[in-house]
Specification:
Layout lengths: L6 H17 L37 H14 L4 H11 L4 H8 L3 H24 L19
Helix pairs in contact: 1-2, 1-3, 1-5, 3-5, 4-5
Amino acid sequence: MAEQWTVEAVAMRFADAAETSRRLPAVRVQGYLSTWPRVVREQWEALGRREEAPVRFPPSPQDIDRLLQAMQWVQWLEVEQRHLVWMRAQRYGWQEIGKRLGCERTTAWRRWMAALQIIADRLDQQAVGASVPLRSFAHPGAPEMRL
């Protein structure tokens, strides 16, 4: 039997996806450049100033594949659950997440666990290949769909 997905494994995959998205190159407007010469500063003018950008190593193709896979998983969730899962993957504190969602931190944690459990259950269903109705993932009163 295939390995089952756990809430912890799904949370680790989202944390890895957030780290990969942070390591992607910045999006810039192409086509603009400056013809001005570089400003050479005196030593006293440059005190406390860092000119060099931090070195970021680009993510590997496998990291990007896992990021895209995690982004597909997010589509199984409601919009509020998506925000919650991604904020936690980016290491926001529970107090900040609770303020964003308008709830207590323990309630935010329970909602986060429920959202990750939804994803883990869906992944387990796909691994088994079962044709289970998706009514439990849809809104009440929605028509029954099969995988």
